[in-house]
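Appendix B, Record 12. Input sequence as logged:
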Amino acid sequence: MSNRVESLVELLPGAGVDVLAVTSLVNVRYLTGYSGSNGLALVGSDTRTFMTDFRYLEQAAEEVDDSFARVTVEAPRDLLDLVEDALGAGELRVGFEAEHLSVGQHERFRESLPSRVELVGCHGLVEGLRAVKGPEEVERIKAATALADASFERLLREGIVGRTEREVARALETYMGSIGAERASFDTIVAAAAHSALPHAQPRDVVITPGDLVVIDWGALLDGYCSDCTRMVAVGDPGAEASEIYELVLEAQLAGVQAVAAGRGCVNVDQVARDVIEAGGHGGEFGHGLGHGVGLDVHEAPRLSQRAGDEQLVAGNVVTVEPGVYLPGRFGVRIEDLVVVTGDGCEILTSVPKRLMVVD
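Logged structural output:
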């Protein structure tokens, strides 16, 4: 944890602040190890302070890195009110995480501080550090992925036909929990037939029947880290058109994986897969980015997208590669792997085969 904090401290002068008030609980966990639901960290060149309330006294003692001084208050309250007492004397520029503080919280924070303290909005400082995973983080993501893959294989063995989308989603989440997952890393997507054309479909009380093409998008949260994968299952013969679209998306997905490497532009990697789908005549049906980072959050930096600007992949990024084609009112196809970026390519973490799985 101390290396992460030191890396953050090195970024503070460039952001124009002396101390950063970290309020995002995911970022607090990354820096301190704390996994509770009320916590705040102050980080500066001479400041390492963690704050919580009495409910988490023992948890903080067990989890928070020893480099942090711990401040615990008796009653649950807005921890921003305590920041002034933890700051040094003199004029200070205190950064706050602009994406994670509401307007109301910012107003209360400002009112709680003396005039000698200037508040400065900061963007993505901790998130930028989180985007590059260390070896231990990669191992945790691998473990979450292996657990999720094993659960999916069990689901296929026990069958999906005759069960509702909601029952299949719940079963998959139950399987993951039974072998150690804290929970699903996001709301499991199970969508059959025309419903599969919705990229973020919510499972329904609709029975999966012969002839359905089913998209299953799932992940596990294990030891704080997420996995993410999407596979397609056909109940019987999917038909010529669906098979053709599947092969097109698979070609794009394989091309996208092949394009992933340190130093490659995120826009360029997205474009490689997009070009395949556009050449197949379905560019207008691929409306989302190719992928996103995965770690303590299931959606984090970097983004493989046409809106990624000049951002480049670096070794240690963990990203999804998930092109899709969605034909409204008919069906959709998405294929997704989770990969770790390396100097000369990537390592695929997902073990579930990418062939179209046909079940009876």
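The first strand starts at residue 19 and ends at 22.
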